[in-house]
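Need a sequence for this fold. Nothing fancy.
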């Protein structure tokens, strides 16, 4: 064997055991109580040996809905991911109005190909669902391994009407793709924002007021009803509020095919972080926004009780300068600030420290939420997301004893700040492998630029909170409209 990892505690989404792992080339080839030493041997005594994380929601080298370029390219974004224990990312290829999907996808392949240091796939953001897109380009994207689409219910340049959402969901269901939804009611937000700004309330903290939890809950409820009408699955991304969480939970209890994601910022940051002098609070401005302590509790409960299948970073890195966060310096209002915060490197350490070590989650839930469920939901399982014979040797070795006070100089992204500055987290990855290669060892990056590979993904196999079923009326409707 080329590599052995011995004496550690292996955890998957379902099991925890003391055993050794053998790697040959890019694959895991042996798992046993005791293995002979390989060409390279890693002593993992006192460490957790876990599947490399999968981050299925991050914006890398991407033009946002507001037309702003993210600070990280595929090099800095994947290096930062690797230092946080993540070995696969699925960022977005973003189609803007007037651009074809085919051109968009080719463009993003070119951006990533020579830079990524870990493996990557793409979701497609659909900004312009023309007839040609629906009939030809989406099926072609799926054939090329892009088996999930993100749609927006807000942002003027990306917001789609319910009719368009139905068209996309119907194509996705027929062709075997999953639709991810940014659920916020655009009119409610615009109406509130206009009045707040007219009355001089343009400071960052009013972003949280304009993006009311009711706007999130209304759009969440609406997309659930559209999904139930068609019996088509949807995954609601970056859920932040108790209102939306409860709405999702109720639909799942009925057996609707509704899945959900949340992110680290909704666990450990709050609206108070945005309430800083001047425009400093823009560093914490994301959509949906940070909420209050009660919302944090509701999100933790949703992770523990299975309402959320996936935990992603929504890494949306924008510099705190005139190019992104504060285009008019100190005069910038919350409506003009780039929405999004960085978190690709902090995602798993936050969940490990605050979830596993504080006993809110088991180590197996940590693995499921941070890796395995992403692989299942997005068509990468069992190649990625688990430690099993035949799977890619994507492994992170975690030391639960290391404690770090966060300081931006530790980060490997290109953003220039971290919203977690000064926070203290315990439990960090020490050695990270991607397809059998050591990519991170302590403070050192070992992977070469461009060594990450594109992952053509298969058909999503959603992980249900309960027994998922197609609503009876949706089944009847399907018979009528399809046949
Ligand atoms: O504020 C956020 N989340 N920005 C990134 C874009 C998105 O909607 O996910
Ligand atoms: Zn979004
Ligand atoms: Zn996002």
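Here you go.
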């Amino acid at each position: 064997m080329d590599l052995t990892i011995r004496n550690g505690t292996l955890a998957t989404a379902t099991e925890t055991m003391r055993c050794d792992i053998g790697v040959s080339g890019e694959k895991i080839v042996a798992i046993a109580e005791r293995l002979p030493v390989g060409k390279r041997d890693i002593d993992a005594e006192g460490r957790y040996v876990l599947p490399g994380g999968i981050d299925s929601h991050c914006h890398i080298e991407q033009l946002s809905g507001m037309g702003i370029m993210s600070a990280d390219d595929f090099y800095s974004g994947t290096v930062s991911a690797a230092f946080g224990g993540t070995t696969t990312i699925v960022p977005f290829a973003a189609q803007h109005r007037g651009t074809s999907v085919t051109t968009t996808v080719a463009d993003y392949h070119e951006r990533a190909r020579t830079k990524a240091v870990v493996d990557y796939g793409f979701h497609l953001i659909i900004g312009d669902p023309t007839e040609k897109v629906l009939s030809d380009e989406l099926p072609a994207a799926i054939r090329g391994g892009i088996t999930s689409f993100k749609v927006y219910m807000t942002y003027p340049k990306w917001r789609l009407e319910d009719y368009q959402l139905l068209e996309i969901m119907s194509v996705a269901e027929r062709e075997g793709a999953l639709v991810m939804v940014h659920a916020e009611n655009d009119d409610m937000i615009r109406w509130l924002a206009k009045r707040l700004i007219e009355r001089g309330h343009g400071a960052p903290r009013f972003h949280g007021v304009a993006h009311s939890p009711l706007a999130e809950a209304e759009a969440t409820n609406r997309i659930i009803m559209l999904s139930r009408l068609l019996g088509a699955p949807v995954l609601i991304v970056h859920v932040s509020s108790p209102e939306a969480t409860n709405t999702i939970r109720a639909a799942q209890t009925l057996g609707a095919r509704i899945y959900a994601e949340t992110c680290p910022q909704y666990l450990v940051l709050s609206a108070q972080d945005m309430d800083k002098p001047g425009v400093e609070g823009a560093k914490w401005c994301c959509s949906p926004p940070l909420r209050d302590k009660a919302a944090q509790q509701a999100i933790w409960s949703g992770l523990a009780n299975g309402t959320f299948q996936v935990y992603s970073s929504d890494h949306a890195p924008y510099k705190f300068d005139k190019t992104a966060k504060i285009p008019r310096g100190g005069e910038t209002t919350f409506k003009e600030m780039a929405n999004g915060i960085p978190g690709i490197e902090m995602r798993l350490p936050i969940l490990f420290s605050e979830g596993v070590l504080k006993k809110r989650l088991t180590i197996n839930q940590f693995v499921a939420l941070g890796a395995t469920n992403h692989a299942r939901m997005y068509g990468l399982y069992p190649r990625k997301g688990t430690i099993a014979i035949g799977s890619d040797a994507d492994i992170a070795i975690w030391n639960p004893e290391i404690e770090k006070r966060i300081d931006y100089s530790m980060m490997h992204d290109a953003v220039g700040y971290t919203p977690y500055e000064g926070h203290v987290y315990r439990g960090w990855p020490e050695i990270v492998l991607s397809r059998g290669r050591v990519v991170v060892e302590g403070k050192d990056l070992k992977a070469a630029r461009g060594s990450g590979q594109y992952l053509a993904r298969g058909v999503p196999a959603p992980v249900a909170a309960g027994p998922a079923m197609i609503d009876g009326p949706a089944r009847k409707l399907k018979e009528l409209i399809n046949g």
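For context: The chain has 13 helices and 18 strands.
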